[in-house]
Amino acid sequence: MAQFTVSDQITKLEHHLRELESEYNREPHSVKLLAVSKTRQVSEVKAAIAAGQAAFGENYAQELADKSLEIGQVGVDWHFIGALQSNKAKLIAQHADWIHTIDRSKIANRLQRHLAGTDKNLEVCIQLNLDEEITKAGVSLDELPALAEHIGELDNLTLRGLMSIPKPASEEATQRRNFAKVRHALEQLNQSGFALDTLSMGMSGDYAAAVAEGATIVRVGTAIFGKRN
Ligand SMILES: *Cc1c(COP(=O)(O)O)cnc(C)c1O
Fold it and tell me: For residue 220, how far is its CA from the centre of ligand 1 (angstroms)?
């Protein structure tokens, strides 16, 4: 069997993303690959960086902080994509460039408090919870406008868009229907005066459907690094 390397997988994925952009009439390079490196060794992250990968997603605040300290923040963007506990807000504020999982104003306020008076800016997505999801994280469509307004008022947070983790579905039509709901939610916010440009959706098993429905960031772990233990 051919040897599986992180570098080869990244090259393949980048190629596939360019093909999907073309297939679905998306702008070239409008879809960014976020390498989800949770549980992965620093050496694996470094192999990905050597292959040109510059954005990494982590689910645990302490792991993100440790890796960003060891690997650095110059030329590498660290995205927090896990469930955020209030007592971890400081770590995230210090070490993350992006956070995809804001779902309540209390967390946004905490992040802002840690960043106030600094020149650091955090790019944020609100996590949207569609119906029937496995996780309880995320706001409902009803709660979304108020949270977006609130984040818009915080000086050191920049609202960029929405993130979602729809229930895994094997049918591409079902995957697309769920991702389309997220895109519609973003379009509605933009119609009401926001200028949001980010849809963080799609993982190893469903990123093609996400690109078809407008994803600008796909969060891919297994297809880059192999199965997690
Ligand atoms: C782990 C994880 C991913 C990556 O999942 P894969 O199936 O390994 O690609 C993406 N998004 C979130 C929020 C995750 O927790």
Answer: 6
222 CA from centroid of ligand 1 (Å): 8
Q: Domain 6-225: give its CATH code.
A: 3.20.20.10
Average pLDDT of the segment spanning 166-193: 96
**CA of 219 relative to ligand 1 center, distance in Å:** 6
Give the Cα separation of 21 and 15 in Å (integer): 10
C-beta 47 within 6 A of ligand 1: no
Share of the chain above pLDDT 70, in %: 97
Domain extents in the chain: 6-225
Tokens standing for 138? 């995320």
Distances (CA, A) of 162 to 70, 89, 124, 147, 201: 29, 19, 8, 12, 8
The verdict on the CB of residue 135 being under 6 Å from ligand 1 is no
